Amino acid sequence: MILADRGSLLRKEKKKKEPADARLYTFYVNPTKILVGQARALFPILLFLAFLLQGEGVFGKRGIGAVTNVVSSTWSAPVRLAHGYLKSKPCVSCFWAAMDLDPDGIFRDDSGSEDDLLQEKEFTKELSVYLVDASPKMFGMVATNEVDEMGETFFHAAVKCISESLKAQIIGRSSDEIAICFFNTREKKNIQDLHGVYVFNVAERELLDRPTARLIKEFSGIEDSFIRHIGSRYWIEPASRENSLYNALWVAQALLRKGSIKNVSKRILIFTNEDNPFGNIYGAAKADMIRTTLQRAKDAQELGISIELLPLSSKEFDVSILYADLLGLEGEEMPLFLTSADEKLEDMANQLRKRIFSKRKVKTIMFVIASGVIIEVNAYALIRPSVPGAIMWLDSVTNLPLKMERTFVCADTGALVEQPRMHFQEFNGEMVKFTVEELAEIKKVSDGHLHLLGFKPLDCLKDYHNLRPSTFIYPTDEDIVGSTCAFVALHRSMVRLQRFAVAFYGSSTHPQLVALVAQDEIISSSGQLEPPGMHMIYLPYSDDIRYPEELQIDAGTPRATDDQIKKASALLRRIDLKDFSVCQFSNPALQRHYGILQALALGEDEMPNVKDETLPDEEGMAKPGVVRAIEEFKFAVYGENHDQEEAAKKGSTTEASKKRKAIYEVALKESASYDWADLAENGKLKDLTVMELKNYLTAHGLPVTGKKEVLISRILTHLGK
Amino acid sequence: MARNKEALVLVVDVGPTMHDILPDIEKLFTMLVQKKLMYSKNDEVGIVLFGTEETKNDLQKEVGGYLHVVVLQDIKVVDDVTMDNLRELPRGNRNGDFLDAIVVGMDMLIKKFGPTNKGKHRLCLITDAQHPVKEPDEGSKADQVNTIGQLMKSHGVRLDCIVVKVKLAMSVQQKAADENIDLLNQFAKNTISKIIHVDGPTSLLGALRTRNISPVTVYRGDLELSSSMKIKVWVYKKTAEEKFPTLKKYSDKAPRNDKFATHELKIDYEYKNTEDFGKVVPPEQRIKGYRYGPQVVPISTAEWEAVKFRPEKSVKLLGFTDSSNIMRHYYMKDVYVFIPEPGDTKAILAVSSLVRAMKEMNKVAILRCVWRQGQGNVIIGVLTPNISSADNIPDSFYLNVLPFAEDVREFQFPSFNNLPASRQPNELQQEASDNLVKMLDLAPAGQEELLKPELTPNPVLQRFYQSLYLRSKHPDAQLPQLDASLLRITGPDSDILSELKSEVDNFRKQIELRDNPKKRRSTKRALLEKPSGSNEEAAAVVKAIDYHNAGPSAVKVEKIGCSNPLKDFEEMMARRDGSKWVEKAIKEMQDHIYGLLENSYKGDNYLNAIECLTALRNSCIQEQEPKKFNDFLHYLCENQKTLDLRDFFELLSSKNITLITKTEAADSDVKMEDAKLLPIKNEIISQE
C-alpha cells in the first residue's frame, strides 16, 4: 500500500465550498499543482530548500514524494511564486481539489440542506502544545478507594487522556495542530537546548503539526520506554538555577510561533499535579523565579497564546499559590478551576477529557425577547453527527491528488458558459425566472435574529416535533451587558413553570420555527453531565408532518386488554436498562472506517476487529426470568400456537414469491443461450437489448436498476473484467 | 387513474359569517392549486359553494331541494381557470347547510368516477359550522350522516373538515354549532375523516395539506424483542422536511426563435492531473483516497467493499429505560413512525399492549435499526409510545435517532449559580421574568394552542409559491412581501403584545441592558437604541389593505424600516395612491441616512448611507425634486463637523455623488461645474 502523504495538498480542504471568485480561489489551490507540474524545473531549488530545512534524510528512497513533502513545510515561498504566475493566466472555470464528502453515501442524510447553525464551521485553526509534567511526583499513585483497583500514576492518566483526545482529534478536527512536550525530564530535546524539557515527536512530522497515526501509536505506548529514554527529574531545587516550568513555557511559546493570531487560536495546556512548583526554594531566589516565570507566561499571553491548566490531584489543587497568577485568572473565574478532592481516577480522566477541547461557538445570535429587549447568546453545536471525512480522488498510477474542474454547458448549444446568475422553474407551462439574489431575498423572511413568540407547557412539544439535531445556546455579556442576567431569569422561570419558548430563528438560508427548552445543570461526581442553558429544537412546519398512521383505517381496530398490558409491563421491568445514557455506544461504522484507515496508514497487515457495541445483550436476554417474561407476553398477545401458525404461513408460498421464481427461471434459461464471456471480450455487450442484459443480471442475482451503461459495467464487474 | 392522482372537491361555505375569512381561504386554495400545477399536474379539482343566494347543481335539477348550493366548477384537471375561480370566490348571503353541500360534492365524485375505487378521492369542507342543518324528511340528522358516511366509505372518499372559529353571537347558535361538530365527528366513525379547528388566518394556511406525497415504507419486517418474540411492523417517516424547490440553471445562449430550447445548463465535471495541465484522468484510473489525519490512504472501491462495516437488516430491541434518561435535545433527525403491519391483528395487539404499558410506566425502548440490507451503518433510536386518539386507528410508536458517543461534544459551561451576583437576576427581575413567561402564553387553557407546528405553514415556501405565481403572470413583477398573515410566525403577534404591555414593560424596566463599554461596536449599539429592526414593529407598519385589488402582494409599505430601507423607499416612491407618499418617502429616507451617519462608528455605516443617498438622488431626479436632495446635502455639509463626516464626503466625491445639476433636473439651480465642488469647498472653508 502506497501512501500519499502530502500535507500541503490537504491544506485545501477548507475550501470545499465553491468560491465566490474563481480566480482568487485558483490561486489558493494551484501552487501545489504548479510545484508538482514544474517539479523538474524547480527540482534543484527544492532540493536546496529541503537541505536547508530538514538537514538530513531528504535524499532518501522516497524520491519525489519526499520532495513534495518538504515543499509542504516551506509553504509560503511557493505561494508567492505561484501567485505571480497565476496572475497572468486568467481562467474561466473553477478548480478545486477533487473531493467528495461521504463517498459511499452511507452517512448521507436525506435532509441534505446545510444550515449555518448545523455545521460547526471551523473559522479558526487551533494550535495546542500539551505540556506534561514528568516530575517524579507525577509517577505517584492516584489514591484509590477500592482495594482491588490497580493503582495508576498521574502520568498515566495524563498520557491516556491525551492519546484518547488525539484519536478523537484526528477524526473530528484533523486540521488542528499539536505538539507534545514533557517537562521535568532527565534528557532534553528542544530547539533552544534548555534543560528539563523534552519535545516528543515521531518521524515524518514537524514538531507542531497535525497528529498522525504514528504519533498516536508511539505516544500511547510511551510509558514503557519513558524512564529509560527520557527519564524523570525534578529540576527546581535550591541548589540548581534551572527553572523547568519557565523553560517549558519558553519552549512551548517557541513552538507556537507559526501562524497568524488572526485566524488561529493558540493554546498551552499544562498537565501537572504540583500546585506549588517553587515550594522547596526560599528567599530571593524563589521570588526571582516566580517573577520570571510569571513574566514568561505574561509574554506568551500577550502574543495571543492562552494558557490553560489541567490539574491532576488527589488532594485539593490550590491554584491560588501560583497558577492563578500564571493563568491570569480573575476572582470570579477561580471556582471553575477547583477540582474536588478525593476524586477517582476515572472522574479525573473524565474531567480532563472534557476540558482538553476548547469550546467552539458556532455563532453569536441576537435574541429579541421583546421590542427593545435584545440580549446576546452564543450558539454551540453540542450534538452533531460525525461522518467520515471527505475523500480525495487520486490518480491510481501516481497516487497524486486530482483536481476537479467544473464547467457549465448550455444544453441547447453546447457552449461553455459562466456560472449562471439566473435560475428558472417550470410552472404551468411557463418558464419562470429568478435571479440568485431574488431567490435569496425570498428566503429572507426575517432579520437573522432569534425572535421570541411566546411560551407553551412542555407537553405541547411532541416527540415527533423534530427535524435536525438541536443547538445549544448560552448567554454572553460580551457586547450587551445584562444578557446573562435576562437569560438566567427566563431560564429559571421556564424550568420552574415547566414551559418552553417558541421562537423564530430567521437565519437567511433556512429560517425556522424553533422550541427553546431550558435545561437545568446536571452534575455528577465526574463533573458536569448537562450544562445549564437552552436547547434550540427545530420544529417542523405543517407540510413537514405526515400522517402515515392514518393510512389504514379499520373500524374494528383491537386494543390491548388489561391482562396483555400487565404482561407487557412485566416484560418492561425485566428488560430494563437502568443506567442507560445516550451516548454510551460508539458508532460501529465509523469505528471500523477509522480502524481500517489507521491500520493501512501504519502499514499493518491485519485488519482491526471492531466490536459492534450496538448489538443486543444476548446473554442478558437468555436469562430465565427474561425468557419467561417474553414467553408470557407472547402467549398473551399471540395466543398458543403462534409459531406453528407462522410456520404454516411460510410453507405456503405467496403469489409474489411464485412470480419471482418464475421470472428467475426464465432469465436463467434465456441468459444461458449467450456466451457472456465472449460477448464481453469483444465489446459486444452494448449490442444487446436492456432486457437481454437484465436476464443475465437476474439469473445471477444482481441488481437490475440503472441505465444500459450501468448494467453493462455491472456485468463486466461480475465477469471479473 | 394513476395511483397517485387525486380528485378533490372543495366544499366552501361562503355565507355572510364567512366573509371575513374568505380572503384567506382564497389564498389557501391558490396555494393548493399552485402546488398541484407544479407537482401533480394531473390532479382534478371541483368546487362547490354553499350559502349562496342562487342554486346551481345537478341534484336540484334531478330530485329538487339542495337549495343555495352552487357548483362553481365541475371536477376537472387543474388549470388557470381553476386558479382564477378560486382566487375570487363569490360572497353569498345565505346561511348554508353543509350536509346538502357534502351530498352534492359526493354526487359529483360518484357520477364522475362511478363505482371504481381507483385513485384518491377527497372532499374538503370549509365552514364555520354555525348554522343548523335542516331536519331531514325522515329519520334524524344522525341517521342521515350515517348514510352519507356509509356511502363515502364504499366509494373510498376521504373527508377533511376545516372548521373556522368565529365569535358566536347568541346561545342558540352555540347549540347549533355544537350539534354540527357532533355531526361532523360522527363521520369519523365510518370514514377517513378529520376535523381541524382553526382560529385565524395563520393556522388556516397550514390546515390543508397542499401537497400529496404518497408515503413509502422505510422498513417492513420484524421488530425483534428477542430471538423468539417478534412483532411485524411497517416503518414510515413521520416528519420530513419539505424542501425549497431546486431550480434549474438558466442559459440564454439558445437562439431567441428556438421554440424547443430547454434553456437548461448542465454541469460537467472533469478530473485532471495536477502534474500535467489539462490532462483528464479517466474514471477507471481514479482511486479514492481516504483521509486519516494528514495522510491520504488510497483504497479501491472493491477493497473497501471487502472490509467495510456491513450489518444485517434488522430492527432489534436493546432494552427499555426510564423516559427521563433520554433528554429531548438528543433527538437527532426527522422522526419515524412504527405501525403494526396492517391487517395483522396479533401485531396490532402486541404493539398496543407495549404502547400502553410504556405510557403507564413512563418508559421508552432503545432500538438498533438497520433498515436495508447492505446499508453501511446502524442507528440507535428511542421508541416512544403513541396512544391512538381515534378508535379506528391502531396504536403506534415514534422513533427518534439518538447520537453515538462520537456525535456528542461535552463542552463545559459555568453553572448559573456560580455566576457573579451582577449576572444573576434579583428577586424583582425574577418576578418580572416569571410574569412574562406566564402571561405570554401560546396555549392558554380552554383555547386552541397557537402556532401549533401541525398548523403552521412554512413562510418561505408560501412566499416562494406566491412569487412564482406572480412571476408567471407578470415576468417583471417585484417580489411580493411576506404575507401579512404569516408575520405572526416570524415575529411576535402585536395584538398579544399590546395586551401584555405592562408585563413586557416591567421586564424591560427590570432587566437593564446596555452596551459593554469595553467593546464599542456601533451596529449592535444602534440595535439597542432603535429596536425598529425588530419584527414586531414591521408587523405594526405593514398592514394588509385590500386582498382583492392588490393581488398577492397585498402588503404596502408605509414607513422605511431598518431591515431593507432601499426596498421600502422604492416601494413608497412607487405608490400612486396619494401624492403624499413621495414626500413622505423622501423625508423618511433623509432621516434614515442621517441616522446612519449619526450612529456610524469609524465609518462602518458609510457604505449603507451612500447606497441610500444614491437611491435618494436618483429618485429626486426622477420625481423632479432636486431641491430636496440638494438641500439635504447642504444640510449634511453644515453638520459635518458635529457628525465628523470628513471621510464620508471624501467617499462621496470619489463615488461621484454630487448635487443634482440643472442638466439632470430642470428645477435645479446648481450649475454643472459647481455640483461637484460645493460640498468639498464647504469642507475646506470650514476647516480653515
TrEMBL record, chain A:
Under InterPro entries, the record lists: DNA_bd_Ku70/Ku80, Ku70, Ku70_bridge/pillars_dom_sf, KU70_core_dom, Ku_C, Ku_N, SAP_dom, SAP_dom_sf
Where is this protein localized, as stated in its record? Nucleus
The UniProt GO MF terms for this protein read:
ATP binding; DNA binding; DNA helicase activity; hydrolase activity
Q: What is this protein called?
A: ATP-dependent DNA helicase 2 subunit KU70
- Family (UniProt): Belongs to the ku70 family.
Residue spans crossing the bilayer? none
Work out whether the entry's keyword set contains tRNA-binding.
no
Tell me the Gene Ontology biological-process terms attached to this UniProt entry: DNA recombination; DNA repair; telomere maintenance
The protein's predominant localisation is: nucleus
Q: Active-site positions, per UniProt?
A: K121 (schiff-base intermediate with dna)
Can you cite an annotated GO cellular component? nucleus
Query: PROSITE patterns per the record?
Result: SAP
Its top-level enzyme class, in one word, is hydrolase
Q: What is its EC number?
A: 3.6.4.12
Recite the UniProt keywords alphabetically: ATP-binding, DNA damage, DNA recombination, DNA repair, DNA-binding, Helicase, Hydrolase, Nucleotide-binding, Nucleus
Catalytic activity annotated for this protein? Answer: ATP + H2O = ADP + phosphate + H(+)
**In what residue span(s) does the SAP domain sit?**
685-719
TrEMBL record, chain B:
Q: Which reaction does it catalyse?
A: ATP + H2O = ADP + phosphate + H(+)
Q: Does the keyword Nuclease apply?
A: no
Superkingdom of origin: Eukaryota
- What Gene3D superfamilies does UniProt report for this protein, alphabetically? 1.10.1600.10, 2.40.290.10, Ku, C-terminal domain, von Willebrand factor, type A domain
Q: What is its main location?
A: nucleus
Q: Where is the Ku domain?
A: 278-419
Look up the record and give one Gene Ontology term from the biological process aspect: DNA recombination
Function, as annotated, reads: Single-stranded DNA-dependent ATP-dependent helicase.
The protein in question is named ATP-dependent DNA helicase 2 subunit KU80
Protein species of origin: Dendrobium thyrsiflorum
Upper classification of the organism: Eukaryota, Viridiplantae, Streptophyta, Embryophyta, Tracheophyta
